[in-house]
Amino acid sequence: MSAATRKRVAALVSGRGSNLQALLAAKQDSYEIALVISNRPDAGGLEIARGAGVEALIVDHKDYGKDREAFERTMDAALRERNIEIVALAGFMRVLTPFFVSAWAGRLLNIHPSLLPKYPGVDTHARVLAANESMHGCTVHLVVDKVDAGEILGQARLAILPGDTPETLAARVLELEHALYPPCLARLALALSPR
Ligand code: GRF
């Protein structure tokens, strides 16, 4: 697939950016990471983007006070100006409003550290251990108005080991995330028509 037909993807980050790194490193034919936006000026993901020669933008949610839609309109305008076709959330820690979710419906995906529909929300690893689950994992899904719901695009699972802590589990799930996210994004990019 030529550069002209690769889908232009923006990754939205808030922190360390290890999933962004995995999306960049995977070198899939069907997509390119053309832009990274962070809502936090200190996010590690910004450095990762710059290191890969990808434009890194800061849209600081704090500049918009309680007006979440105004924050999103700034991001939306930046995405459209750059002809972005798919938005991949990669550790983006803001809940999106119906404005943004409907603007990018079917083209907005997320990775979540649990086997959805089980354990939406935060602190998944500790909650999975507290519930004595035997299996855990991660999910890539389309984003809809309800948090961590939406069509599941892929899942990867692992067995919980005796002695696992939230930290050991998080580390093993993160490795699975890095393997799962690029092919899921690549499949979506192949399936979608250009925007
Ligand atoms: C990952 O565990 C992801 O599943 C969750 O936030 C974390 C982001 O990590 N949504 P990173 O910034 O990609 O390293």
Distance between the termini: 17 Å
How many β strands by DSSP? 7
Largest sheet, if any?
A: 7 strands, mixed
Please indicate the percent range of residues in DSSP E strands (runs of 2 or more): 15-25%
Q: For the CA atoms, what is the radius of gyration?
A: 16 Å
How many domains make up the coordinates? 1
Brief summary:
With about 200 residues, the chain is α/β, with parallel strands linked by helices. Helix content is about 35%, strand content about 25%.
Can you tell me about this structure?
This protein has 195 residues and is of the alpha/beta class. The chain has a single domain (7-191), classed as Formyl transferase, N-terminal domain (Rossmann fold). It has 6 helices and 7 strands; from the N terminus they run E-H-E-H-E-H-E-H-E-H-E-E-H. A 7-stranded mixed beta sheet has the order 3-2-1-4-5-6-7, covered by helices on one side. Helix 4 (98-103) links the parallel strand 4 (86-89) and strand 5. Helix 1 crosses helix 6 (166-191) and helix 5 (124-130) crosses helix 6. The longest helix has 26 residues, at 166-191. It binds 5-O-phosphono-beta-D-ribofuranosylamine (GRF). 5-O-phosphono-beta-D-ribofuranosylamine binds at residues 15-19, 90-91, 111-113, 174, 177. 5-O-phosphono-beta-D-ribofuranosylamine binds next to helix 1, strand 5 and helix 6.
